[in-house]
Amino acid sequence: ENIFDRSRMAPKTPIKNEPVDLSKQKGCTPETNPITPVKIIDRPQPDPWTPTANLKILVSAASPDMRDREKKKELFRPIENSEQSDTPDSLQYDIVDDSTVDEFEKQRPSRKQKSLGLLCQKFLARYPNYPLSTEKTTISLDEVASILGVERRRIYDIVNVLESLHLVSRVAKNQYCWHGRHNLSQTLKMLQEAGELQYGDLMTSQPKEQDLEYKFGERKKETVPDSLDRPLLEFSEPDCISASANSRKDKSLRIMSQKFVMLFLVSKTKIVTLDIAAKILIEETQDTVDHSKFKTKVRRLYDIANVLTSLGLIKKVHVTEERGRKPAFKWIGPVEFPEKTDELRGHSPTSDPLPETQRGACAQYQTSATGKQRFTRHSSFNSAQPCEATRRKVSSEPNSPHQERQDENCSKMINLAAVCRQKIEEDTGSAKNSDINLPFSLLPVPGDSDFCVNPLPQAVFPVVQTDVPSFSLPVGISSQASHPSTPAASKTENGKPTLVPNQPFLCFPSSSLFMLCGGLQENNLSKPLPTAGDLANRCPEAQAAVPPTVCQKRSSHKCSSPSAPVDDEEPAAKKQTLEHSDLPLSLVVSKKPSESPKAESSPGRGCSAAVHLETNHLDLASPAATEVANKEPTKPLDCQEQEKRSQNKDPDEPSPGNEHISKDNANQPFQPQYLYVQPTAGLSSFNFLFSANQAPGAVSLAANQLPSLSVPCVMVPSTALASFPLVCSPPFTSPLSPVPDGSFSAAASTNFSMSSLASATPVFISTTAVVTPKVSPAPSVDPQQPAHPALHLSPVLTRSCSAVKLDSPVCMGHPVTLLKLQQASSAPLTPKSIRPAHHEAFFKTPGSLGDPVAWKKNEGNQTRNASSVQRRLEISSTSPD
DNA sequence: CACTCCCGCCAATTA
DNA sequence: TAATTGGCGGGAGTG
């Protein structure tokens, strides 16, 4: 601390600048340090002020290796840091900028500055949310501690929590492996499931947490106690089997963290008060609850909460109960994945996705995106696991061979998705945690897909048909789609895309394609949609309340995908509803959350994908959908999702351009259509593509004119994509027949719209976005190529697309680019796709600039702190603005 | 005063 | 035995 003082005095100014000082400090530090044993001395002080710079110096001195690492890290930081955004506004650009921060903080290291939350942010800033699979980042505790200028003990606190969520795994002594959030959704899902088993009764049964508390008190012991640790462990480390030795570790922060998260996931309100959590946790551990224990537990919970807050998974709120006001935390992370998917899933059995695979896939994809290697590393994650295994135990590996295959195929998609997510998240994340963070998760998607699958396939097509006469195939497609419903089978089958030659539709391998939704706003509206009605009923409020325009705007902005769903009459309503719900969501737990009632799955998704699905269901569903819809879960989900979306979106945001578009769209018959393809079961990680329905609008192309087709989104399962080429036939005259690869489906879809429109261009754009897919090998069917696979689809498309879109895609290298592209497309259509926006973004092609704007707005509004990357994207994409 | 939660002692584990 | 992990709770900072 003494050191700090000095640093304060003099160094307060940005530290970085002056290495010299640092060096000096070093010398000093040892002396000063004497107090603490060895380690402490070196690093402690310097850090505080200019954590990074000083630390680095110190570190470098300490070991060359560290230096190198640090350098590397630094390089990354700017890009990766998006996370930071959440917290410190200033930080956004560079974490590195400690200097900036320092200025504020320099003055004195107040306690806040030393907070675990802040420390965690710094920590997280050093690593990408969605690291490319290729490189594993290893984390050296000593190094990090020195860099961050804290004692190791603190790093343990952070790492333990992160580990509980599988964001990192311990490889060896002092060595941790950074995984990022690729598996987060999966992990959360697991936790949710586990939580339901353990706490479900309590949480669910009780309307309010308060009640829960009471109940907990009663039940705690019963339900929780024994199982707690074990299950948790398992959850936490699905991969790894339960920890071998439970000893102390079991009860530690790691477990507590998981349990704590479980409580959120199980809670309807998504709000958990500290005292309740403490009680529950204590119970688990022990029956006797000493006051002291309680206090200790609460302390730990604060520690955990700080880390989770830094991750953007929860935020602090106050719950006012009868008793009084209590400190509590609200879950603002994704919620959907787990639950209900099962129901839907029935079909897609498999999907158990292996986190690993997903990861690998993602990584692969990314690489591919980069344009380089593709699949080079599936294993990366796997390897990671081993690490964990070493540490703890190895787990059984669920993975089956097929999964791997899928992985490959899917991986592409997944990667895209992952990339998109990252981008999105980054973008949004900074601004807003809640929605942003995990919008898509590979996992969730699958689940969604599942839902969708049943109803969707058929429904979708029909819808399309309704909307666009041109689509002759829809039916056929739908049939195909239905097949896919069974994931496993499909895979084997895959490869064969069903093509409908002239059809506007895309054909996916049965397995691959789940849903296609077309939303026609107006037109569709007219349609009788049983499902929609149902949906609407469910969320009647929303429907009524939400002004269409608004929704559209949002949708356009945010995500095409969501919007797309909206397109359909119902969807819009839903969206609206969602919005409403979302908006209302307030700290107060009870109220809104309740709405989402069960949204079991819904919430989380965050993923646009999920949304899509839902929407799709609704829309598509009309026929089948209704049935599906009937399923309670689905509905709620939809609602929730919508809500989420809505949340994400700000109604206000309206990007001018987008708005226009959206309006136009609204006016126009556009129908956003989504195509959702689900990967085979194996995919658990899914891929989805969205085509932006928005595209039409977004594109500005004449999209407005073109209203006829807009295929908002296409989601394709990775597998589908990869293995099967999707075929899109040009709906209309324009024959797009060419089929984009699965990956492209989105593109293809867009194309349709485009084609129909005549202004193929926009569509193409989307395609371009798709381009990334090319990464994937697509076995395909399509002639398309790697280079511009999607483009090939239609001649027209090819031209425009290839030329234009592709180029834009150039950006591809980074996910960011992709996003932008997507964004562009999105704008117009969907009324609200709040969340979806993300998705949209993905899908959106550069061409549709308008959308990007929307995005920007959305994100920008939402997140002030868009990460640098985000900004970049936005900027580039947003040019329109 | 209550809420947070930093800090670091010191025990359990591990190398 | 030394080092690493990490439980734990005193007590300080904040409002």
UniProtKB/TrEMBL annotation:
<dbReference type="GO" id="GO:0090575">
    <property type="term" value="C:RNA polymerase II transcription regulator complex"/>
</dbReference>
<keyword id="KW-0238">DNA-binding</keyword>
<dbReference type="GO" id="GO:0002040">
    <property type="term" value="P:sprouting angiogenesis"/>
</dbReference>
<dbReference type="GO" id="GO:0045892">
    <property type="term" value="P:negative regulation of DNA-templated transcription"/>
</dbReference>
<feature type="region of interest" description="Disordered">
    <location>
        <begin position="626"/>
        <end position="666"/>
    </location>
</feature>
<dbReference type="GO" id="GO:0045935">
    <property type="term" value="P:positive regulation of nucleobase-containing compound metabolic process"/>
</dbReference>
<feature type="region of interest" description="Disordered">
    <location>
        <begin position="845"/>
        <end position="881"/>
    </location>
</feature>
<keyword id="KW-0539">Nucleus</keyword>
<feature type="compositionally biased region" description="Basic and acidic residues">
    <location>
        <begin position="641"/>
        <end position="652"/>
    </location>
</feature>
<dbReference type="InterPro" id="IPR015633">
    <property type="entry name" value="E2F"/>
</dbReference>
<dbReference type="Pfam" id="PF02319">
    <property type="entry name" value="WHD_E2F_TDP"/>
</dbReference>
<feature type="region of interest" description="Disordered">
    <location>
        <begin position="1"/>
        <end position="49"/>
    </location>
</feature>
<keyword id="KW-0010">Activator</keyword>
<keyword id="KW-0804">Transcription</keyword>
<feature type="compositionally biased region" description="Polar residues">
    <location>
        <begin position="81"/>
        <end position="90"/>
    </location>
</feature>
<feature type="compositionally biased region" description="Basic and acidic residues">
    <location>
        <begin position="571"/>
        <end position="582"/>
    </location>
</feature>
<feature type="domain" description="E2F/DP family winged-helix DNA-binding">
    <location>
        <begin position="111"/>
        <end position="180"/>
    </location>
</feature>
<dbReference type="InterPro" id="IPR036388">
    <property type="entry name" value="WH-like_DNA-bd_sf"/>
</dbReference>
<keyword id="KW-0805">Transcription regulation</keyword>
<dbReference type="GO" id="GO:0000978">
    <property type="term" value="F:RNA polymerase II cis-regulatory region sequence-specific DNA binding"/>
</dbReference>
<feature type="region of interest" description="Disordered">
    <location>
        <begin position="340"/>
        <end position="410"/>
    </location>
</feature>
<dbReference type="InterPro" id="IPR036390">
    <property type="entry name" value="WH_DNA-bd_sf"/>
</dbReference>
<feature type="compositionally biased region" description="Polar residues">
    <location>
        <begin position="364"/>
        <end position="385"/>
    </location>
</feature>
<protein>
    <recommendedName>
        <fullName>Transcription factor E2F7</fullName>
    </recommendedName>
</protein>
<feature type="domain" description="E2F/DP family winged-helix DNA-binding">
    <location>
        <begin position="248"/>
        <end position="333"/>
    </location>
</feature>
<feature type="region of interest" description="Disordered">
    <location>
        <begin position="62"/>
        <end position="92"/>
    </location>
</feature>
<dbReference type="GO" id="GO:0010604">
    <property type="term" value="P:positive regulation of macromolecule metabolic process"/>
</dbReference>
<feature type="compositionally biased region" description="Basic and acidic residues">
    <location>
        <begin position="65"/>
        <end position="77"/>
    </location>
</feature>
<feature type="compositionally biased region" description="Polar residues">
    <location>
        <begin position="860"/>
        <end position="881"/>
    </location>
</feature>
<dbReference type="InterPro" id="IPR003316">
    <property type="entry name" value="E2F_WHTH_DNA-bd_dom"/>
</dbReference>
<dbReference type="GO" id="GO:0000981">
    <property type="term" value="F:DNA-binding transcription factor activity, RNA polymerase II-specific"/>
</dbReference>
<keyword id="KW-0678">Repressor</keyword>
<comment type="similarity">
    <text>Belongs to the E2F/DP family.</text>
</comment>
<feature type="region of interest" description="Disordered">
    <location>
        <begin position="546"/>
        <end position="608"/>
    </location>
</feature>
<keyword id="KW-0131">Cell cycle</keyword>
